[in-house]
Specification:
Number of helices: 0
Shape: elongated
Number of strands: 11
Largest sheet: 7 strands, mixed
Order of helices and strands: EEEEEEEEEEE
C-alpha cells in the first residue's frame, strides 16, 4: 500500500513562512513527477508547484518567487517552502506523486490527505 503523508500546515500571519513536507511510504519502484496542489473553499483544486525526478520545477504565477519546491529522491520526500504568505494562499494543500510500482506493475497518481494552511492576522 502506497501512502503520501503531509505535514507542516498551520496558522500563520501575513508575511510569514511555513514549510510543508510529504513522505511517500510503501512499496515504490520509482517516483516520476511530484507536486503540490491546493484547494480553497468554494474553488477548484489548482496547481501550486511541480518537480520532475530530475529536479526541473514549475510554479503557478501566483506563487513564483515566494514558494520553493524540492525533493529528496533517496528518501522519497517532497517539500514546499512558503515565504511571504498572503491571505489568498489559505487553502488545503495536497501532495501528489506519479508512482511506478513493480508488484502489481502499475503507474498511477497518488494523493495525500491534505494539510490546512491558514494565513490570517
Amino acid at each position: 500500500q502506497v501512502q503520501l503523508v503531509e505535514s507542516g500546515g498551520g496558522l500563520v500571519q501575513p508575511g510569514g513562512s511555513l514549510r510543508l513536507s510529504c513522505v511517500v511510504s510503501g512499496r515504490v519502484f520509482s517516483i516520476n513527477g511530484m507536486g503540490w496542489y491546493r484547494q480553497a473553499p468554494g474553488k477548484q483544486r489548482e496547481l501550486v508547484a511541480t518537480i520532475t525526478s530530475g529536479g526541473s520545477t514549475n510554479y503557478a504565477d501566483s506563487v513564483k518567487d515566494r514558494f520553493t519546491i524540492s525533493r529528496v529522491n533517496a528518501n522519497n520526500t517532497l517539500s514546499l517552502q512558503m515565504n511571504s504568505l498572503k491571505p489568498e494562499d489559505t487553502a488545503v494543500y495536497y501532495c501528489h506523486a506519479n508512482i511506478r510500482r513493480r508488484y502489481p506493475p502499475t503507474v498511477r497518481d497518488y494523493w495525500g490527505q491534505g494539510t490546512q494552511v491558514t494565513v490570517s492576522s
